[in-house]
Amino acid sequence: MLITLCSGQFALPSFQAVANADNVGPRITITATDGSSAVTNGSTTNDNTLTLTFTCNETTSNFTVGDIGLVGGSISSFSGSDRVYTATFTPSSNRLTKIYIPTGAYTDGKSNNNYASEIFEWIYDSSVPLFFLTTLAADNSTVNVQLSETVFNSSSGTGALEVGDWSFALAVPLGGDPATLSSSTPSSISKGVPTFSDNTIDADLNGAISIFASDLDQDGDVDVIGCSSQGSNLVWYQNNGSQSFTKYTIDASLVGAREAIAKDLDRDGDMDIIAIAGEGDKLCWYDNNGSQSFTKTTIDASIEDPRGIDVADLDGDNDVDIILDAYTEDVLVWYENNGFESFTKNTIVSDAGFRPFSVDLDEDGDIDIVTSDMSSDELLWFENDGAAGFTERSIDGSIDNPRGVSVADIDEDGDLDIVTVSFDADDVVWYANNGSESFTKSTIDADLDGAFDATIADIDNDGDLDIAAVGQYADDVVWYANNGSESFTKYTIESNIDKPYRIQIADVDLDGDLDILSHGYNDDDVAWYKNVDGGYDLGISLSGTAIGTEILTISPISNSIYDAGGNVASTSQSYNTATLNDKTGPTMTITASNSSSASVSDGSTTNDNPLTITFTSNENTTNFAVADVTVSGGSLTSFSGSGTTYLATFTPSSDGATTIDVAGSTFTDASSNNNSAASQFNWTYDGTVPTITGNSLAADNSTISVTFSEAVYNTSSGSGSLEITDFTLTRTGGNASLSSSTPSSISSSGNTYTLGISLSGTPNGSETLTVNPISNSIYDAVGNVASSSQSNNSVSLNAVVSNYILDLDGSSEAAYVGDNSNFETTDWSIQVWVDPNSLPSSGNDEWFVNKNRVYRVGLNNSGGTTKIVGSMRSGGSYETIYGTTLSNANGGWYHVVLTFDDGTNDLKLYVNGTLVVANYNYSGSTVNQNSEFSIGRRHDTNTGYFHGKIDEVAYWNTNLSANAISALYNSGNTLSASANSGNYTSSGNLVLYYQFQENLNDSEGSFNLTGRNISSSDYTAETID
After folding, report:
1. Number of Cα atoms under 13 Å in the Cβ half of residue 912
2. CA 479 to CA 470: how far, in whole Å?
3. Measured between alpha carbons, how far is 249 from 264 in angstroms, rounded to an integer?
4. Which among 14, 19, 503, 796 is least buried, having the fewest CB atoms inside 10 angstroms?
């Protein structure tokens, strides 16, 4: 039997020695062992006796066994003297026990009365964990096992259960086709989500404003303390051990009662009550005489509007001090206990506090305080210096109207984290401690309307800490399940409790899991919510389908499952079997054969007509009929059979897909289990030969793709990939011819086959290419052979056009056109693409374009340096501008443009789209001369032959813009000067245009060139790069 209480808890440090023995009473420290190992205060073990040691801080001669206070057990074998005494403690039953020394029980040598000892609490638990409910999922996939108490996988009471802690066995009956276990170890384990049931403790606590769970009468179960704000009552509800509660009034005149907590304030072994109220006796304590008769003492009647209270040994003197916040005064104070319940008020801070929570937050051995401050929207903590001197630390300075606070190690990293709520923002948040009291805020829920209080506990018994909270405006009691990685899932416990203020967690029914308690201010309710533990969901791996007679046994592995006291679950349990649910109905298998009794496979395509269909059930059936069969693509006739075997004839209605189905739940077995749907029988009837339905020729004539009307193969059995020898190619007309009538390659995608074409010569577009199957080479899936004469199998080859350039030898080859005034316009532009094969020697020129005594563009070598130059003659002499320097003849293609603007007298030279040199305000103008327009030399002197490649020579009767020249350059040889494109818009000004496509013709049609020593070998197919 375990008692678990979760609320605002605190830790008391161990005894600290007092130096002056003349006027300070003695104090005893209580420790325990099980005979070999220490048993810590607050622990749970299964030791049936404890050896107690009472160690006094000074000599005493009158300490006796009668001075020892006990709850839940007896003392024997008491002995000792001076400062050390021992005794044997025997618990009366499985329960919470307490051992303590009350104040004034003995004296020291100076007759000083002793101080109360710290209470030694210990839970004795000798009950082994038992199975009490086993539930199988309807689909047999999991079994849920619920145990009598919280369990672990180590004797120390730690560690979550694992699949290896369980064992399955399956008793398989004779006959039938039962399921078997794939593994005796569960395939998975998860903690089931608990559910909660609502139980009313009191429906008439007028203005119920707070509750507190505690074993007030120390009978081993959880009682409840309640405050009635409107009724001015302080009450307690006595649990009879079966969760039937009897209400007792402690104080009927606690005006504006607000909150109460239970603690053995005077260390006499019983639980006292400390309470606060809005009026009158605002801070008081109720001394329990051990029989729940209470004597009231007012501690402070002047504190204004106290809202929150906690207790802890703040000053480390081994008594219980009180912490309180006062909302109207806006102060956080503590009351120092002198050891004899006389209190001195101390102010911690004058501008903070709402709900103090005492805890050693920085884990330095003294008790700090965490509190929300609703007036300043802050979450604060006050660091204790060890002597009850406090330093204020801010955790969050912008949380909107915070209320309840709770502290625990939520992320299990060894430090203490914080949970609080925001009343105005409806938030539930937690703050992760990095170990140095630097906190990172995370929102758990942003939609708990009027969030007011929260607390922390392992609600679902899965080994991590969850959070429970209440929302005043939402009227909700909720909890948030932690997945172990601080990702929380919200579950609503109650959504109709009117204005809850507080939430408590305790094991009210002593069943090993944590229940929830809350109250409703407006509906006067005090309620507890029973936690129905979710147990453990164990995954079952089955082979086959259960027939309903297999019996599953679930057992703990030996020495694998323990409770908190170290009691191990037996491998032999009651309530540990479950009969698998019968999931097996009759199944029908559909098969087919042809007229030769050869099997026709499901999913196949054949040309058999008709088929014989066989229906085979895995068990006898008497009500399977032809109406239970549905077909598509044909008809079913001649149905017959009985028992497990039925026959019918299926005739397809046409080529195409057919199906035969037996739907689920159309017939039954002898046990009235509905049948499961049969696997659909799919068959395609095909009596049509394959044909070519289309073709596609590659742009470069390298391949032709032909598409067949259906999937094809190279054997009559409907298998084998097509090969190049399954096709023949023929060509008629045109220039090009086939190198081979057999394709050079083959590839496929679906029903389309791409065939490689080997050509000799260059197609001119008048050739016709035809593809045909070789006779008896190409078949469909059922053996229908493609004809060697097809339609949709011919295509015209694409004409192949290349760019040609003129390659000049630099000694005798050139071209020219006679004089014409159209070449001597006022404004003009000359373009040429060149790729020099060599550079002129020093002092020599090579001309790309020359019109004697008018203009010229070419290469000039002066002093050993070769440059691209442009010249214009006016006034009897040439004006030459020198552009790009060429260091060698390996520079590739150059785009050269020379322009003249008569309006501005600007002569400009562009190379590769960029202006490289210009003569601005040149005083000359275009001169009319009777001279030839020459390409590749100076015509009048028959000198200056250009050695290299030349292309795209053009003359415009306008001054081209820089953008137009850049567009011509950047286009390579793909932009024709004859058509506008982009920034080039001057095609209408084009006078002559030579593209050298194996001729010297002017593309504009008026000024064809005359060649000098030009032959067909001087034209080369080449792309300008």
Report:
1. 11
2. 9
3. 19
4. 19
